[in-house]
Amino acid sequence: MAGLALMALLYPREGVTFFNVQAEFPSMEEVLGAETEESITETETEEEKDTLPEMTPEQLMDMRMAELEAARDSEFMVFCRKSPTRLHMPDDDITYLDPVFEALEHASERPVRIMHYGDSQLEGDRMTGVLREKIQETFGGNGSGLLPPVQRLGMATATVDTWPELRHYMYFGSPEFHAEHKRYGPLAQVAEVDSTARFTVTAHGGSTYPHCRSFRKVSVAMMGDGGFTVQAGGDSLEMTCSRDSSFDGLRIFSTTLSRSVSKAVITAYGRMEVYGIMIDGASGVSMDNIAMRGVSGTLFTSIDRRTLAPFFQQQNVRLLLLQYGGNSVPYLKPGKSITGYMQQLKSQIELFKRMIPDAHIIFIGPSDMATSVEDEMMTYPYLPMVVDSLRSVAQESGVAFWDMFRAMGGRGSMVRWVEADPQLAGEDYIHFTPRGARRVSEMLWGALDLYYKYYRFRHHLDEEEEQTTDSTQATQTLQTEAKPLPQTQATPLQQTEQADSTGAKADSLETEREE
User: Fold this and answer.
1) Which phi and psi angles does 366 have, rounded to 5°?
2) Are strands 317-323 and 360-364 parallel, antiparallel or unpaired?
C-alpha cells in the first residue's frame, strides 16, 4: 500500500509514456480508498480500533501522510544503499548536495555556474549537453557556457571562429602545443593577442538542445592590457570589468545584451592572453563542457593559480564534475602504480576545494572499457580495482562519487554496448556513440533529479509551493469578488438595458461557437 501511495505521489495522474506505451497510475484518493471495509477490519489492531474513532479527519490524514513520508523515506534509502546508479555520498550524507540544490533554486536571483571537466568522453558536448539541457530546463538558464578562444574540435552547441590565426597553447595533447609558461586558465589553454583579434561566436542547439540556441550575456576571461567590444542583435557595446589592469591575475570582461541572440562578434584590442569566452543567459544556470583528450585529471595543480582561482571566485561555481580515470586504466597495475595515481587525484580535489570552498564536487569514474584477451574482448583486468580506488579517494576527500562503470552494467558491459542495436559504443570499446553518451547522461541526471526531489520532499518545499499557489488563487478570487460598486447607481431601466445587452452578446458568442 505504501509503495502504491508513493507512486501516486511521484507520478502524474495522466500517466507517463515509456517507449510509446502510456502507463497510468492510481490517484492518491484511489490508493487510500483501495482498502475495503472488510480488509481494514481484518488488519486493524486493538490499539487502532480504540484510537481511530477519537481522531478528526484532519488528524487521521496527518497520520496517514506521516506514514507515507516514512515509506517514501524508506524506499529512497533503499535506492541509496543498493542502486548501481546511486551517488556515493561522503560519509553516506544524503544532504551533501543540499547547498547546491538551494543555490540552483535561487539561480534566477544569483546565477550559478556548473563546470564539467573530463576526458575525450565529453568531446563534442555529448554528455555535458544532455545534463545542461536537463538542468537549464529545471532551473532556468541559456547558452553553452565557457568556450575555448580557438576551437580545434567541433561542438554540438556552439562554434567559435577566430581571426586572425592566433598563437594558441594547450596544457594537454601533443607537447608541441605546450607554452613555455603555465598560465593556461580554467580550460587549460590560452590564445595570445598582440594588437587586435575578432571572435565570432554562434549558438546552435537546434531541437536537441533548445536552451543553447541563444544567449544574452557575453564574457571574456583574460589577463593583460586592453579591452573588448561586442556587436550582437543590433547592440554595439563596450565590455566592462570590475578589476583594472593593475590586478595581477585573470580578469573577466562582460556585458548583457538587450535581448537574446544566437550570434555575437567580439573584438579584442590590446596585448593580452585570452583564456575563454562565455555565452550565458542573463540569469539561471550556466554549465561548461571542458573536454581534454588524453588527460588523466592530474594537471590542475601545475597551472598558474592566478589564471584559475579568480575565475572560480567571480563565477559562483557551485558544482564541479570531475570525470577522469579512463585514460589511465590501460597503464595502471596493483600496488604503487594505482596508489600513486590516487594520491595525485586527491591533490587535485584538495586544490579545487581550496579555490572554490562553496562548491561541491562529484567525481565520475570511468566507463567499462574492453581489450582483447586471448582473442576475446573483455573488461580491462584492473578496471574494477581502479574504480573502487577512485571511490575510496572521493570518500577520503569528502566529495561524492558516481560509478559509471557499474551504472552501465559493470564487467563486460562495454562489449554489450558495442554489440547493441542501435550501437551504444564505438568499435574502440572505449568511447560511447552519441546515443550511448545520451543514455549514460540521462542515468546520471536521473540520479541527480531523484536526490533533488528528495531534497524538496525533506524540506516540504512542494507543500509550501502548493500553499503559495492556493493562497495566490484565493487572493485573486477575493479581488475578483470584491470589485468596487459604481459611484452612480443604475436605474431599473438602465439595469434592464445592460442585462439585455449582456445576454445578446452571450447569445452571439454561443452562435459563433455552434457555427
Assistant:
1) -70, 160
2) parallel
Residue carrying C-alpha cell 573502487: 388
Confidence at residue 488, expressed as pLDDT on a 0 to 100 scale: 41
Give the span between the Cα atoms of 108 and 503, in whole angstroms: 46
d(CA 215, CA 204): 10
* pLDDT number for residue 40: 38
Contacts of 331 (CB under 8 A, 6+ apart): 337
pLDDT score recorded for residue 3: 53
pLDDT at 296: 94
Cβ neighbours of residue 384 under 8 Å, at least 6 residues apart?
A: 405, 410, 411
Collapsing DSSP states into helix, strand and coil, what is residue 212? helix
- Below-50 pLDDT ranges, the chain: 2, 18-19, 21, 28, 31-51, 478, 480-515
**CA 206 to each of CA 133, 147, 280, 322, 475: distance values in angstroms, whole numbers, following the listed order:** 12, 18, 16, 27, 41
Q: What is the pLDDT of residues 157-167, one digit of tens each?
A: 999 999 999 99
pLDDT of residue 430: 96
The SS3 assignment for 36 reads coil
| Cβ atoms < 10 Å from Cβ of 9 | 17
**Under 8 Å between Cβ of 92 and 391:** no
Phi then psi dihedrals of residue 364, to 5 deg: -105, 120
394 — phi, psi (to 5°)?
A: -60, -45
Residue 508: count of CB within 10 angstroms of its CB: 10
Q: State whether residue 18 is helix, strand or coil.
A: strand
Listed in order, strand segments (DSSP E) in 292-369 are 317-323, 360-364
Please give the pLDDT value at position 510: 38
Listed residue (31, 2, 3, 11) closest to 453, CA to CA: 11
Closest to 24 in 3D by CA, of 4, 46, 43, 52: 4
